């Protein structure tokens, strides 16, 4: 009866507002996380449709399915969508939803910052697609090389839309990363020292630090490009003392760490799935953590391998060749650790585990082609061919999409309380695996036969016809796999089997509460004694009490060993972060057309910030010592 009364009080205190107003105001991590997941998946579908259209155009030579101008918009919007609007936001959204549950806390740090980040990201995505659907979408590639994207060769507002979209999405990524770092460091369950954190939490922590260091580079670059185009600065104009290679250095200093920002969470999803379906701790925990950190550090030293063909000094190229090969070592350690874990564990073949096996096959192939491209002489021959397209997709889709679909299947019961259909899940994997390899493996041969990327048609005498048709068929098969996954999710949500609290018999604290979690996450906060807590939790293990049920209080713990420190009250739902994102959007978008957008945006943002920071009665108490 005491637990029931406490549940009622906490449910009322942490109650989420419903409807449109709830969507605009709620800042709980499960709401913001699900907003990111659903929105980024919608953008993934749009990017996939664009890919289907491009492959249809390239299915046969001298095709007139789309015009060359529309094709340029297609491949630019497709790349921008997948890199900026799908991959990183999806990873952040999954982390925002799952990590606080894994840490045994009720809310993230800076929940209003998370709310602002989501709506900034949403506005950036809508800006890109507003331009695309109105036929003035960006057309210089997702990398927007200058001078092609400069005012001389790209008049109009197409590239301005792309540059301002970058501003919005990176604001969203940075805000989410700062909140994630603070949450992992200060909101862990008592006893969860740094060396007891789940590997998925480590992946989100390392990724968040990479975002903090990498994203400002592309924000600076896009702001400089917008300045060149809108107010006639000359950052990239060589005739006026600028440098076109400056753009590539700034962009790829972000762009290659972006690959590992996408890939590192994928590897920790793998570790989670491998442990859950072998019933064994992942081999080499410390080595796995160090591999993540090493990948992050070395990942910031390989950006020039995108620039081997730009005429840089050969001595410099040798260093970046070495670092590009060096980064395979920590990744190889992880691969062998997973294999050892599977070999010595109790291998349980369920749908998420199929994606683990698919990942191992596809990502290793992508890594091997990456080692090939790290060689400067070979890169000179294959640069800007379809071989590079194949390598990129084998690394990113193999390294992120396969683990992601497996993880979404694994955590679907946590989101919904329902199990996904196992038979339909296996068919989905089959279409994903066959369709992916049928789409991208032929591109290796197309590149070796000299087909350049970013061309919208080709002559029949080039000998590329059959491989392009095969690749297009594979794209449609892959599209069927995506549709099957969506159908499985919808059917399971409506009539799937009830999951129970921990349907997989897994090990981490997100399964310590009900599925889906209540609005307050945990009735009593858990404590930990082990890395795989649920598997080793004792019946008499203490829980954290002492919170006022009429306040949204969370526990703050020490950085290293997670000793209880104090408790704080987190903000309730509010409209101000959403209004600030809207004010920022008005200012930045209006600035594309008139300089008055800057003062207008500052005025509106000032009003929103005044409401955000208006003094409120503080509620801060020291935590009473627990027995």
Question: What this model shows, in words?
Answer:
The chain is an all-alpha fold and 627 residues long. The chain has one domain (2-348, 500-622): Cytochrome C Oxidase, Chain A (Up-down Bundle), CATH 1.20.210. It is built from 19 helices and three strands. A three-stranded antiparallel sheet has the order 1-2-3, with no helix packed on it. A hairpin with a 6-residue loop joins strand 1 and strand 2 (564-569). The longest helix is centred in the first third of the chain and has 36 residues, at 68-103. The chain is globular and about 80 Å long. It starts with a helix and ends in a 5-residue tail after the last strand. 51% of the residues are buried. Residues 619-627 have low confidence and may be disordered.
């Amino acid at each position: 009866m005491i637990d029931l009364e406490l549940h009622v009080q906490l449910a009322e205190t942490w109650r989420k507002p419903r409807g449109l107003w709830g969507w605009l105001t709620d800042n709980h991590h499960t709401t913001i996380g699900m907003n990111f997941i659903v929105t980024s998946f919608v953008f993934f579908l749009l990017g996939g449709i664009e890919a289907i259209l491009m492959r249809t155009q390239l299915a046969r030579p001298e095709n007139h399915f789309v015009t060359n101008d529309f094709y340029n918009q297609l491949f630019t919007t497709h790349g921008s969508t997948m890199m900026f609007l799908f991959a990183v936001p999806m990873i952040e959204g999954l982390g925002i939803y799952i990590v606080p549950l894994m840490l045994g806390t009720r809310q993230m740090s800076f929940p209003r910052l998370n709310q602002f980040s989501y709506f900034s990201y949403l506005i950036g995505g809508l800006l890109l697609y507003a331009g695309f659907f109105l036929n003035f979408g960006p057309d210089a590639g997702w990398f927007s090389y200058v001078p092609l994207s400069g005012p001389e060769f790209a008049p109009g507002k197409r590239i301005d839309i792309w540059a301002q979209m970058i501003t919005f999405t990176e604001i969203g990524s940075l805000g989410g990363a700062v909140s994630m770092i603070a949450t992992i460091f200060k909101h862990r369950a008592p006893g969860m020292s740094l060396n007891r954190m789940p590997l998925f939490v480590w992946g989100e922590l390392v990724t968040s630090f990479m975002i903090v260091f990498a994203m400002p580079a592309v924000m600076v670059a896009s702001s400089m490009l917008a300045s060149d185009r809108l107010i006639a600065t000359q950052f990239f104009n060589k005739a006026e003392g600028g440098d076109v290679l400056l753009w590539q250095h700034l962009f790829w200093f972000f762009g290659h760490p972006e690959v590992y920002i996408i890939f590192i969470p994928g590897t920790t999803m793998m570790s989670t799935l491998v442990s859950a379906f072998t019933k064994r701790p992942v081999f080499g925990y410390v080595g796995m953590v160090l591999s993540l950190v090493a990948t992050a550090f070395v990942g910031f030293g390989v950006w020039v391998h995108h620039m081997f063909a730009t005429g840089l000094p050969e001595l410099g190229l040798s260093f970046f060749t070495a670092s590009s090969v060096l980064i395979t070592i920590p990744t190889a350690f992880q691969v062998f650790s997973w294999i050892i874990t599977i070999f010595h564990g109790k291998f349980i073949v369920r749908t998420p585990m199929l994606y683990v096996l698919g990942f191992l096959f596809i990502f290793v192939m992508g890594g091997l082609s990456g080692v090939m491209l790290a060689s400067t002489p070979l890169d000179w021959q294959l640069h800007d061919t379809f071989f590079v397209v194949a390598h990129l997709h084998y690394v990113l889709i193999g390294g992120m999409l396969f683990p992601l679909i497996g993880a979404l299947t694994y955590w679907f019961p946590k989101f919904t309380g329902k199990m996904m259909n196992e038979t339909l899940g296996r068919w989905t994997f089959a279409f994903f695996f066959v369709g992916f390899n049928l789409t991208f493996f032929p591109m290796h041969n197309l590149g070796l036969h000299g087909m350049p990327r970013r061309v919208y048609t080709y002559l029949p005498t080039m000998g590329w016809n059959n491989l392009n048709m095969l690749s297009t068929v594979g794209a449609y098969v892959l599209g069927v796999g995506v549709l099957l996954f969506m159908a499985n999710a919808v059917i399971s949500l409506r009539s799937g089997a009830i999951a129970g609290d921990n349907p997989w018999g897994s090990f981490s604290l997100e399964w310590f509460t009900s599925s889906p979690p209540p609005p307050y996450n945990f009735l009593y906060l858990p404590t930990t004694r082990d890395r795989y807590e649920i598997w080793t939790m004792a019946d008499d293990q203490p829980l954290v009490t002492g919170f006022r049920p009429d306040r949204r209080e969370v526990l703050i713990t020490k950085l290293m060993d997670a000793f209880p420190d104090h408790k704080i009250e987190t903000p309730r739902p509010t409209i101000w972060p959403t209004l600030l994102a809207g004010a920022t959007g008005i200012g930045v978008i209006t600035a594309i057309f008139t300089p008055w957008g800057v003062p207008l945006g500052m005025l509106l943002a000032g009003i929103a910030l005044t409401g955000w920071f208006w003094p409120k009665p503080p509620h801060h108490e020291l935590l009473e010592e627990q027995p």
